[in-house]
Write a structure and sequence with these properties.
The complex is a heterodimer.
Chain A (H helix, E strand, L loop, with lengths): L14 E3 L25 E4 L3 H10 L6 E5 L15 E2 L10 H20 L3 E2 L3 E5 L2 H16 L6 E4 H7 L9 E5 L3 E3 L1 H14 L3 E4 L3 E5 L5 E5 L4 E4 L2 E3 L5 H8 L6 E11 L10 E4 L9 E4 L5 E4 L3 E2 L12 H14 L8 E12 L5 E4 L6 E5 L5 H20 L40 E3 L4 E2 H8 L8 H8 L12 H12 L26
Parallel strand pairs in A: 1-10, 2-3, 2-14, 3-10, 6-16, 14-22
Antiparallel strand pairs in A: 4-9, 5-9, 6-8, 7-8, 11-12, 12-13, 15-18, 15-19, 15-20, 17-18, 21-22, 23-24
Chain B lengths: L1 E11 L3 H12 L5 E4 L33 H13 L4 E3 L3 E6 L4 E6 L2 E12 L3 E3 L2 H4 L2 E3 L5 E3 H11 L7 E4 L3 H12 L6 E3 L9 H7 L6 E3 L5 E5 L3 E6 L4 E3 L2 E4 L3 E3 L2 H5 L4 E2 L4 E2 L12 E3 L10 H18 L1
Parallel strand pairs in B: 1-2, 1-6, 2-3, 6-20, 8-13, 9-16, 10-11, 10-16, 11-12
Antiparallel strand pairs in B: 4-5, 5-6, 7-17, 13-14, 14-15, 18-19
Classes of the chains: A alpha/beta, B alpha/beta.
């Protein structure tokens, strides 16, 4: 019998938001390090992106005291949220690298992982499309590279074979490389699913806490938050992505440089989904992988990214530009005919963590014993998150003397009810427990009900921002971009949690939905 | 799923146009008619403009030369509807369409059900254009980038000011009404910017709103970015001009809600989303009609109501 609704497991971990009074319920609010217990943590993971969450999930299978901490107000809210959300086969990786190895391992993991963790996944496959003679000559090399990465199911397609599969492919298409192992994933749900299971298994999660410094000790270090709370840690994993350099400065970590590489994307409406059947990839140049055109797991069409290197801490690293949008449209139109006629519903940009010392830089006992630096996870973090977590745990056993004994009570799956409503509609799958509010639609574009919003609010990670709800439910993500549902959604959240509407935020303090410092005057 | 009832006419949308169509059909003795509204109340967009002391009256009833608030105007229309035998389904959304059979799948508080009709009137209204749809406005995706719908929602339902120092993007009647509402509620005089050289709102309309606002106008902005990290801190043009603020209101430039027509495979122009209409506002499938702002353009509540009445005549002829 299909159960619909939220997953409410026995939660053994503690969840806190470092938020001002009134911004979330008082029991969720972090006010002193004492709330986390007096015993030092065996491992503190700084950075709750997809990699940090995957590591927390894997560590939660063992009898360890683990804390996952992030400066943002949800998991997966940095680089992990704004990307192409593809699960890669690794066909185009540099053979022999750790990245190639991890992608190879992860590809075998994903179907089962997605099914167990209830992460939507759609194995549509990809086609690298050559649209010039020169690009066509590169296909053979791309195929060889794929084989060197142990991706052996790739196959060269003729122009006619591509047209048969992709009737809207550009008339310039000369040929292509079919890569069956490329899949559509849900980058939001990956971080959330990892973190929910970790939390259920006893990992503590602290959100909204910026780590401003590290006090190093002999056997015990302390992470110090920007507001002065000290978090005791026997081991520290720096998985802070774009923030990894600043954190590494705090413990004297070795040299590496981070540059945010901005990737802008265009999101088309669902009516454009039928334009392509596969993930259409350009032939990369020396400088960039180029603009791809892909369906999304949500039923939209996506084009992007750009690749623009920006200085660290540039606030524009997640801004879109009119010029960048134009370039994506131009690049996408080289692969797909009629793209420019499709209605765009949103543009977004993400900043990839590009490290000049290479990708997947891992250093054990970096600067101090028990400290692990992980950085340069630039573009394949979602795919490799699971194998990278295993790799890191192996490394921590060998290099940091981490001792592991399995936690026999640990769970390793989420139940059917954890599928998001947009993936398993409440009233369309024989669910027996759908409520009336699962039929009251709040987000008209994505057909997301009041009930799904309430279920998400009650889910283990207790999302309390509009963006966190958006990533779980898809409300606000449709063609109207919140025109119809923004205010009703805030009313539902406020009614369900007791947080005042004036205190509700898009993504944490400073992002209040209305001008800050007001009291509500109900109609 | 309950297999459905059959109606003479199904009307999708319970705003002024849908109500006008229902009233028009009732006057002709056509029934049974069902009106499907996805929100929990009837009246559509004007209903969101609550009557408030000191508030800005919009949806002006020009025919009688009186200024009224949206909810009064929509309220009167709802009262006229209540005198008919129209079946009303609130909080109910159309999720699937078989256009030739005029079969609609509905999702509502009772779950999923189907109904069929001999004719369908699409009166789904319109929404404001998003920044991405404008094509010339990019930048940050922050809090306090709002539509006029939000300005009225926060102010009229919660007494909350969306921004103290607003930057209004757009210059049509809706943009001026947003500026006036903000100003009347205590914001600073809004900055108003647009790609157009001159405001798209007419002189008479601008004069009407001068009682509340004289926005600081900048036209001819060809490319601009929303600034800010967590919340909007203004807009900056590509040539470096800055309009600082604490919220950006993206106003007007209505986009018709034609997604159901698109879902049903009707002729819709893309990317503009405009319906391709035949005579009498008929859609490309026989027995399907459109009424109100879903046909494109920007029309007031009264116009939409009478347009619904007019479409009812065409529906009656079809039947």
């Amino acid at each position: 019998m299909t159960q619909f609704g939220t997953w409410q497991p026995t939660v053994r971990g503690r969840l806190f938001y470092n938020w001002p009074r009134g911004a979330c319920e008082e029991p969720l609010r972090f006010t002193s390090a004492g709330q986390l217990g007096s015993e030092p943590y065996d491992v503190v993971i700084v950075g709750a992106g997809v990699v940090g969450c995957a590591l927390a999930y894997r560590l939660s299978m063992f009898d360890l005291r683990v804390l996952l901490v992030d400066r943002l107000h949800d998991v997966g809210e940095g680089t992990s949220k704004a990307n192409s959300a593809l699960i890669h086969s690794g066909y185009d990786a540099k053979p022999g690298t750790l990245e190639s190895e991890l992608l190879h391992e992860a590809e075998a993991d994903w179907p089962d992982l997605a099914a167990r963790l209830k992460i939507p996944l759609d194995p549509v496959g990809g086609i690298m499309m050559a649209v010039t003679d020169e690009q066509e000559r590169q296909l053979e090399a791309a195929k060889k590279n794929a084989h060197a990465n142990r991706v052996t199911d790739v196959r060269i397609l003729s122009a006619a074979e591509i047209r048969e599969r992709e009737p809207n492919a550009s008339p310039d298409v000369r040929g292509g490389l079919l890569v069956p192992g490329e899949s559509l994933g849900d980058s939001f749900m990956a971080s959330i699913a990892y973190a929910e299971i970790a939390l259920a298994n006893g990992v503590d999660i602290l959100l909204g806490a910026d780590i401003a410094g590290v006090e190093l000790g002999q056997a015990l270090h302390h992470l110090v938050t920007a507001d002065g709370h000290r978090l005791p840690a026997r081991r520290i994993v720096n998985a802070a992505g774009l923030g990894s350099r600043r954190l590494a400065d705090g413990y004297g970590g070795g040299a590496f440089d981070i540059n945010p590489r901005r990737g802008q994307f265009l999101l088309f409406d669902k009516s454009a989904r039928s334009l392509v059947q596969h993930i259409l990839l350009p032939v990369p140049t020396a400088h960039t992988k180029g603009v791809l055109v892909s369906p999304t797991i949500f039923g939209n069409l996506l084009a992007g990214p750009t690749a623009e290197d920006l200085p660290l801490d540039d606030p524009a690293a997640t801004h879109t530009t009119v010029e960048g949008i134009g370039r994506i449209m131009e690049g996408g139109s080289r692969l797909v005919e009629g793209l420019a006629r499709q209605p765009i519903i949103a543009t977004y940009a993400g900043a990839r963590c590009a490290c000049s010392q290479g990708s997947y830089v891992i250093r054990y006992n970096d600067g101090a014993p028990g400290v692990v630096t992980l950085t340069g996870v630039r573009s394949t973090g979602l795919t490799a998150s699971i194998s990278l977590a295993r790799h890191l745990i192996d490394g921590m056993q060998k290099e940091l003397g981490l001792e592991l004994s399995p936690d026999t009570a640990a769970i390793d799956a989420r139940p059917e009810s954890a599928w998001p409503g947009w993936w398993r509609r409440p009233f369309e799958n024989g669910a027996t427990n759908a409520r009336a509010d699962h039929g009251c639609v709040t987000c008209f574009c994505e057909v997301i009900s009041e009930g799904e919003i309430r279920d998400a609010l009650d889910s283990p990670l207790k999302p309390r921002t509009m963006d966190a709800l958006k990533r779980r439910t898809r409300a606000l993500t449709g063609r109207c971009q919140g025109f119809d549902c923004q205010v009703p959604l805030a009313e539902i959240v406020s009614g369900h949690t007791g947080i005042g509407i004036a205190q509700l935020t898009k993504n944490g303090p400073g992002s209040e939905l209305v001008a800050p410092g007001q009291a509500e005057v109900p109609a | 799923m309950s297999i459905g009832q059959h109606f003479k006419v199904a009307i999708i949308g319970g705003g002024p146009a849908g109500i006008g169509a229902a009233v028009g059909l009732a006057k002709r003795g056509i029934g049974p008619v069902v009106l499907i509204e996805r929100r929990a109340e009837l009246g559509g967009t004007p209903m969101g403009y609550r009557k408030k002391p000191g508030g800005v009256p919009t949806f002006v009833e020009w025919t009688r030369g009186r200024m009224v608030f949206g909810e009064e105007l929509a309220g009167r229309m709802v009262q006229r509807l209540a005198k008919t035998d129209t079946a009303i389904r609130l909080s109910t959304q159309v999720t699937k369409i078989v256009p030739a059979e005029k079969r609609l799948t509905l999702l509502g508080p009772e779950g999923v059900c189907e109904l069929t009709a001999d004719a369908v009137v699409l009166a789904a209204g319109a929404r404001e254009q998003t920044p991405a749809e404008k094509g010339w406005l990019a930048g940050a995706r922050t809090a306090r980038v709002s539509f006029t719908r939000h300005v009225t929602g926060w102010l009229d339902n919660h007494g909350l000011l969306p921004a103290r120092k607003p930057v209004v993007v757009g210059s049509d009647l809706i943009a001026f009404s947003a500026a006036a509402k903000l100003r009347a509620a205590g914001s600073d005089e809004p900055v108003m910017i647009d790609r157009r050289q001159r405001p798209s709102s007419g002189l008479f309309e601008r004069l009407f709103f001068r009682r509340w606002t004289r926005p600081d106008w900048s036209g001819g902005v060809t490319a601009a970015e929303i600034m800010g990290d967590r919340a909007a801190t203004g807009v900056q043009s590509s040539d470096g001009q800055e309009w600082p603020g604490d919220g950006v209101m993206v106003c007007g430039e209505l986009v018709p809600n034609t997604e159901l027509a698109l879902l049903a495979g009707m002729a819709v122009e893309l990317p503009s989303r405009q319906l391709q209409l035949a005579r009498s506002q008929a859609l490309s499938q026989p027995g399907w009609f459109a009424a109100g702002n879903v046909i494109g353009g920007f029309h007031g509540a009264q116009w939409c109501y009478f347009n619904g009445r007019r479409v009812a005549r065409a529906v009656a002829r079809f039947l």
